[in-house]
Amino acid sequence: FDDARFEIAGTPIFWLPRLRLPDPEQTRATGFLIPSIRRNSQLATGIKVPYFIRIGDHRDLTLTPYISAKTRTLEWRYRQAFVSGRIEFSGAVSRDDLQPTATRAYIEGTGTFDLPRDFTLDFSLIAVNDDAYLTDYTFSDADRLESEVTVSRVRRDEYISASLTHFHSLRVSEDNATIPTILTDVSYERRLFP
Question: What is the pTM of this model?
Fold first, then answer.
């Protein structure tokens, strides 16, 4: 729209020189999403302005700058759908006044894929380069990070699962060098009807 106006009872309330609205038939269009104001006692009041990028029919990227007096952060999320599964990765990179000499970052991802013979591959991962980063930015309040890869099959009378899990503790009282961090688990269950 050019010279878009919002009126109440014929009285102009709001005017924009240009306004773009998505077509109701278009479900995914590149452009800005609704901004938000974020208040954090350590990072001051800031604004987040997400920008959605349609890369194709089956994948997209959202970039969200977060700017305040004490931080410059770029959050991101990538999603892609495949014929036999889907993935989603997200994360953030920050330079802030809490640790002015360090670049702080985290990444997390999930995915699921269909395998032959009704098996499913699922994974979830999370990693951080600063143990306090997730709580400083209220991304998560987890005190242990768990990444896992699982292959499983569920049928009416049978369940099979094999998984490999990695733990990383964020607790000050725990030393990752002295606790088990990688675990494996194999399960088989079957119902029998005599």
Answer: 0.84
